[in-house]
Design brief:
- The chain has about 650 residues and is an alpha+beta fold.
- It is about 35% helix and about 20% strand.
- It contains 24 helices and 26 strands.
- Strands 14, 15, 16, 17, 18, 19 and 20 form a seven-stranded antiparallel beta sheet that branches. The chain has a five-stranded mixed beta sheet with strand order 3-13-12-4-11. A four-stranded antiparallel beta sheet has the order 6-5-9-10.
- The termini are far apart.
Amino acid sequence: MNEKLKTERMKELIEILNRAAEAYYAKDEEIMSNFEYDKLHDELVALEAETGMVLSGSPTVSVGYEAVDELPKERHERPMLSLGKTKDREELRAWLKGNPALLSWKLDGLTIVLTYVEGKLAKAVTRGNGEVGEVITNNARTFKNIPLQISYTGELILRGEAVISYSDFEKINQEIEDVESRYKNPRNLCSGSVRQLNNEITAKRNVQFYAFSLVKAEGVDFDNSREKQFDFLKKQGFSVVEYEKVTEENILECIARFEEKIEIYDIPSDGLVLSYDDIAYGQSLGRTAKFPRDSIAFKWADEIRETTLKEIEWSPSRTGLINPVAIFEPVELEGTTVSRASVHNISIMRSLKLGIGDRITVYKANMIIPQIAENLTGSGKIDIPERCPVCGQPTEIRQINDVQSLYCMNPFCDAKKIKAFTLFVSRDAMNIDGLSEATLEKFILKGFLHGFSDIFHLSQYQNEITQMEGFGEKSCQNLLDSIEKARDTSLPKLIYSLGIANIGLANAKMLCREYQYDLEKLLSADIASLSRIDGVGNVIAEAFVSYFSDEKNRKQFEKLLKEVRIAKEQVEEGSQTLAGKSFVITGSLEQFASRNELKELIEQKGGKVTGSVTGKTECLINNDSSSGSSKNKKAKELGIRILTEEQFLEEYMR
């Protein structure tokens, strides 16, 4: 088996073994026998010994989690320069001057410098400002695909890009219920993940590393070829940025292939990089004050269309900033129809001299975000609103760092309520489909929504909604149907939907159960009585009482109560037989469709279901009491009883 096949087999074994370990320890499932696991583990150990390589994530090593107070700074041995850029394909071809080169993705993440000493990862430093970066060695050890040990034992220094894939970015964002707290793009998420003070958080983010430059490898002859440097890095276990070898004859075809692939490529990229394969030739060219001359970046040329500016829409945000948005005659750009583009602030609007009816050119920045390129007319005939288009209160132009922006000065402006409305309509709250954050912002801007109860009267704006961009008769009707369906809700969901600080759905359920779903009793409870509820505490109690002590909140809630129908919970006297008791459920069930179904039954009886076994656990419910699962082991260590479904029902549900 050659080195490449050995590396691929190691990657395969790591994936299989880690999947088996996760199933065993986290899900209490066994997808392979201990004999089979040990056999594969031994094979991996042998391959690591043969290759002298230990890949990231290998179960043969344990990466300890560590929290630090701050990331130390360190100066780079050589300054890390930016690259010169072009959008002209012919200019890129001419740049080659007859020399072969490597054309690769320009990945959009965070540049990292890795140093290996005696075959082990010794240091990882971010690019920083090019002169000084931050040391993130412990975080780098948790990256998804970097080797922790390599066969080469000399000093090795390389550069690469830390990235988070679009698919991982979507998964991470979906787990964040609060839309306002979600990450804006993979690059921001990656930057924050790589620079965490606790590397346990970094480990959960699936950060990947792609090498794009070898800086130093003592004693290795690369035959003056950058491509052979890449081959060397691959043999050491590194993922190398995807590239093609190009000449003047085939470079345009290669650019076209990359362009086709970018639509489906899972790794964020904002262009291409062209580097001479001849290392000595590239170095002989030296550098300018800003750029090295051995590489150049290629940015996709923007497709530009001419159109007419119809209006400026003033869009207030939750921070009070009022952004000008250009609305123009629809044009086709990069395969989609666009009719609006953010102008960002008053300074940009004035520099473009925008006026209604002006002829403008528009493009998509990085083939994604619509922007105005140029104003061909330059009339400058636009009035800046003196009052907020949402609340009607006075606006103010503020200048920060030479940039002028328009602000609404009303602290109670409805535009600042978007976050609250977004939570209100979310799945675990009122569960109203069709009201995304963007749609809510539009409705608030048009004055449709002021308080939560207004959502239930959107039907009066049906004609206007049907004419809005992104809506039609069918989608509008679907929204109205979803709103009608949401009128039937439960008290815990209604309480959670209000967005009271520190009160999630689980806490709302606890509060409601304690007062037998009697809203009047719940609202009249004081901090002391609420604090005594198991699992509530003083912080939650104070937040709840403070919210309903506010007259504005109370009136909003009273209006909301007139719009909804709260399902009557059947709480029989003496039915809270499990109050104060905590249970853990694991393994497959036979008499219940899912764990959630059993969990709901326990909660109806006043009990609590947690995810881990502790000394306070009443019992562990597991139909396989003899399994070697981690929860079973923990229960036996603590002397916690393990009951089957049948035993649990017989003892606690009679």
